[in-house]
Prior knowledge:
Blueprint lengths: L6 H9 L14 H16 L8 H13 L6 E5 L11 H10 L3 E8 L5 E3 L20 H4 L3 E3 L4 E2 L2 E2 L2 E5 L3 H8 L4 E6 L6 H9 L5 E5 L3 H7 L7 E7 H4 L3 H6 L8 E5 L6 H10 L3 E5 L8 H4 L3 H11 L3 E4 L2 H11 L21
Parallel strand pairs: 1-2, 1-13, 2-8, 8-9, 9-10, 10-11, 11-12, 12-13
Antiparallel strand pairs: 2-3, 4-7, 5-6
Helix pairs in contact: 1-2, 2-14, 4-6
Amino acid sequence: MPISCSARSLARAGRRAAEPCTRHARAPRRSAVQALLALVVSILLSPSGATAGESARKLDLERRLAGPDGTVMVVAHRACWKGTSENSLDAIRACIAAGIDMVELDVRATRDGKLVLMHDAGVERMTEGSGKVSDLDWAELRKLHLREGKGQRDGKPTPLTRRRIPTFAQALRVAKDRILINVDAKAPLSPSVLAMIDAAGGREQVLFKAEAPLEQVREAAPWVRSVRFMPILREPYMKADPAAFIGAYDPIRPVGYEIDIKDRGFAPILTPLIRTRCARYWVDSLAGRAFSDVEALTDPQGVWGRLVAIGVDAIQTDEPLLLKAYLRQTGQRGFACPPGQAPRALLSAHR
Length: 351
């Protein structure tokens, strides 16, 4: 569908209370632009629940994480950091308010074993502090302030905010029954993490992932069969025999496969392999990827629309509100598992 203004323009216009986006638009396309703009604004202003009640939202989220249900999942990379701070509680709350399906959060361990949210090994980019997370105690980290957004803009540090580095436990409590979490673990996770997740919200709402052969996954996380898991596979390594690489994980029945696509022509080859397993096909549309958010800002159909047409039904993006608005406007749907072929139920949390 042709769009007369860039998605970036629509985002700016949405933040200015629906200022018309017509400067570069041709008159015949004006209604389409206004329609997408109205969707962005409605997402910003509307409550998170498209379903009725918290219990319905909980069941909806858990169904989506269990496997393809006909929806295209919107995954916010480091949560909704625009207007907040990446990997912050406010960024998670912003995604909840916008009705985003999932937040991707980076988890690291402090020197004294506290799990916190921080992407980089060091704290320099996102705070006024210095040093590695693993070399600092929680008492030191909790005093630091997060910077706005991604910590830098035009090569310079962004202003400090009142926000603090959150713990993983805090993030679980904020997200419970409101949004799914994808854990990008930057440190080994012990079985005690599962007890924390169960106490805070439930493992049916948390997705684990790893870039490692099955044997290494099982060795590092023998509990992997009792969680929702997704392997990360990269095209250069799997291109010679994609069926073998995907099939290698069959014993643990992943709920999805994150594929690092380098060549757009390779992407459709994987669709039948993943659908046969009734799992989600996950692709990142981050800057610098084969399908890039940067391009999507001016050509969402050529990026996000193409991904959905290929069969991708989970897209991780730094533009979650714009992706959600695009999917709502176009009405595009994803693959749904046939009746009787739903993914496995989780093993008991107490086994």
